[in-house]
Design goal:
The protein has 175 residues and is α/β, with parallel strands linked by helices. The protein contains 2 helices and 20 strands. It has a 5-stranded mixed beta sheet with strand order 3-4-2-1-5. A 5-stranded parallel beta sheet has the order 6-9-12-15-18, covered by helices on one side. The protein has a 5-stranded parallel beta sheet with strand order 7-10-13-16-19, with no helix packed on it. The radius of gyration is 15 Å and the shape is elongated. It starts with a strand and ends with a strand. The mean pLDDT is 95.
């Protein structure tokens, strides 16, 4: 897989390093706030602004990289018309075999998704997150590092869980 990353900020860097750790290539970044040609991580540059997409730069897949759920949702919808969204799982993450992960979702370092977890599209499951059994995560959700989601939880579309937050088993809610 050769990945085009939409967004060159901190989350974009994490996604790039995760892709490389998983043995994938990174075509580059698109970002409105970074000059074209500027190196974002060693050897990987900004290819231009998001707002002036001129091509897919040899990429086979894309990921929207923003901690802002609204922006990530907008980019996900826009770029889904051009390329397939990737599913990216860090090699140190634990993902049980029956877990279902939607397109455009990233599971970062040392995250754990237990049996029966279902994740929607364009979800960020950050480093060190634990999602216990039989929980459902809606589309465009952002779970910050170190959060713990108890069993049988339902996180509605666009929910944001903050760093270290603990969601008790059986909880349902929207962001």
């Amino acid at each position: 897989m050769k990945l085009l990353i939409i967004g060159g900020g901190g989350h974009g860097k994490v996604i790039a390093y995760t892709a490389l750790s998983a043995g994938h290539e990174v075509a580059g970044f698109l970002d409105d706030g970074v000059p074209s040609g500027k190196e974002i991580i060693p050897g990987i540059r900004c290819l231009g602004p998001v707002s002036a997409v001129t091509g897919i730069h040899g990429a086979t897949h894309f990921l929207a990289a923003s901690g802002d759920n609204n922006k990530r949702k907008e980019w996900f919808r826009e770029f889904s018309a051009l390329l397939p969204a990737a599913v990216l799982i860090h090699p140190t993450a634990t993902v049980f075999p029956d877990v279902k992960i939607g397109m455009g979702t990233v599971v970062l370092a040392h995250a754990s998704l237990m049996c029966g977890v279902v994740s929607g599209e364009n979800v960020v499951i950050n480093a060190g997150v634990v999602v216990d059994h039989d929980s459902t995560i809606g589309d465009h959700v952002f779970i910050s590092p170190g959060a713990v989601i108890g069993s049988r939880c339902l996180l509605g579309e666009m929910t944001r869980i903050e760093t270290g937050e603990i969601i008790k088993p059986g909880t349902s809610g929207n962001g």
